[in-house]
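Subject: two folds for Thursday's group meeting

Dear M.,

Sorry for the delay on this. The cluster queue was jammed most of the week, so I only got both jobs back this morning. I'm pasting them in the order they finished. Each block is the input sequence followed by the predicted structure tokens. Could you check whether the formatting survives your parser before we put anything on slides? The first protein is the one we discussed after the seminar.
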Amino acid sequence: MIYRLCSRLRWETRPPRLMSPPATSCSAPGTLLGSRSSGPGLFACSCRRMPAQSTIGYVGPGDLIGLAPLLGGSRAWNAEAVVHTTLAVMTVEQLQAVAAVQPELPWLIAEHVATWASAAMLTLANDSSQPIAARVARHLRELALRTPDGSAVAQISHQRLADAVGTVREVISRQLRTLRAQGVIDTLPGRVIIVNETRLDGIAAGPSHGR
């Protein structure tokens, strides 16, 4: 993300003012963001694959979203706020202005884009080969946020989880019932509480885990 990228640079003078872009609040769920938004909340980044869409990853505090699709000219993606989020929006022109005084930045951006694209491809490849139980567990693990009492809670409905996994609500409800019966999770309206994180990690790793 741009703040982490720029934190690796050595400024000879004071950093440009553009490094403190205005903040914008974003409510969740259901808010779709364009491909030039970044911020300290939790986002689900999705790729549209006809006739449905698949969530290719989640980003959290300080992460950059949208740079790879923007530079690649792709509109087949979106980002959705999972929890209430504050965004810092930067434009291509602002990035170009930073690059003009910091020649290292383009290479750091190239590294970021390559890492993002590789991770997205790996996620899609894994989703096509993993059983539904592993895919549900992976999304729950990545969606879960730590609460003040130390619990890991994914604030998501059955339908929104089905959309993220790329399946239907009935399948998700069945998978969550199984996980609850196994003592891995507990459920409340609009949230899933991770009871056994180690067990959930093992399920998310797929059937080859432990071989």
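Second protein, same layout:
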Amino acid sequence: MTEPRSLEDKIDEMLALQKSQARDVDSFSPDKDAISVESWLELSNTLRTQSRYKQRRQLLGFWAIANGREIEKVLVRSHLTFKVESLLKAVNSVLEDIRTNKIRVYETATRFWTWLQNEDYSVQTRTQYRSILPEFFLKVLGSRNFSRDKFDSIVPNEKVYTEVSKLVPTKEQSRTMASASNLQYRAVIGCFVNLGWRIGEILSRKWSDLEIRKEGYAVVHIKAEDTKARYERYGFLTPEVVDWLRKFKASLVQTRQESGWLFPGFHTWHTEDVGKTYSAQGMEYEVTKEMIGFPKFHLRKNMVELELKRLFREAGCKDREDGSAIYSSHSFRSLCDSLLSRYGLDRKFVDLSIGHKAALGANIHYKDWAEVEKQWKDHCMTAMTIEKQTEIVKEIVDSQARRQNQFLLKLFGRILTPEQRAELDTMVAKEGLDLLPVGEQMTPEQAKKMSRKWLENKKKDMSESVTSKSRRSE
């Protein structure tokens, strides 16, 4: 028979058991609900969320680099981007260090934030990436291994402010830029001034997005997935800009004309591309023989920005020396906004067409595009013309006044001497007046009637003059 244990022995046993089961609260604990990095990326790899997908890839790449990894880059449509296989390998390597407790998850975040500062990324970019990281950690590590409250207390949260503001050109400066441009960039500038859209929204338009009305202007359609604000909208191009687009299209080689883009790019499909898979905007295409020679994509943003910067300088639009304010394609958004407002388009319709979602508020759900088009046509279609319009002054002929003048000249012809008539004829000729000759004869009845009226008016003027003088003397 075992001896009963004392209370002290029982307490010691319980404490020993707790100590053996205790673990480091910050050590990693597998979570069956966590997902893989690939799955997290694919959540945003849809036709409607391509910008988010690219942003997530870039975020993970920078996060891995900030934590000592190297990632291969590949050239895609004239710019370098992270190779997906190398990206996933680097990210999973950092996650493995977290799972094996070699590094704390919060430490990887602070390293990332410090790296962004050292690389001179803007406060907007740092804040945006910081807001995405917690979701990534929760999904791939699980809620057991990540606390948002602890993340907020460790990783600095900056206040967003505008580091670089945009300068706005005048309509005259935009006219100068258009005049100094070739056919392509004249059409580009025309679209920027008329639509006020973002550079990607304009360059990605196709001819199928335009509905050209019988009056010559065009309604431009953009789908929700192609916009930053994620709502379908319409803009309007004047007949002048539609004509510029047509002239630019006519100047292109056949394959570029048939590409469908308003502004086709210069990179084309080649024979060695046939059979390869091409990804764009969340969809995959297989390159066929029929695609050889056609542009792969529309005109690139960075190429357009460089040319616009040159044209801005030629028009006298110079950035501030300290870089705090610059001219860019975004400058045309403010110009278009002010022009549409100045010419009488309703403020709500301006925000709706340009894409100022924050300014619309609840009005975004009440869209009357037919009324927007009517107002734009009535108030803005002519006024938004960029090139200076030739002002035609039409002479308005008052037939009654012409007859009266001719009658007076006839009267003078009866009263004046031949020398005086000749002198009056010379005066009329010098003034370039289209009147009958002074010497033309009037009937005696016309002359008598006109003389009597003239004498009556003269007597009346003399009488009023005498009365006025007598009053002043009193």
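Two things I noticed about the second structure. Residues 392-396, 434-440 have pLDDT under 50 and may be disordered. The first strand starts at residue 73 and ends at 76.

Cheers,
T.
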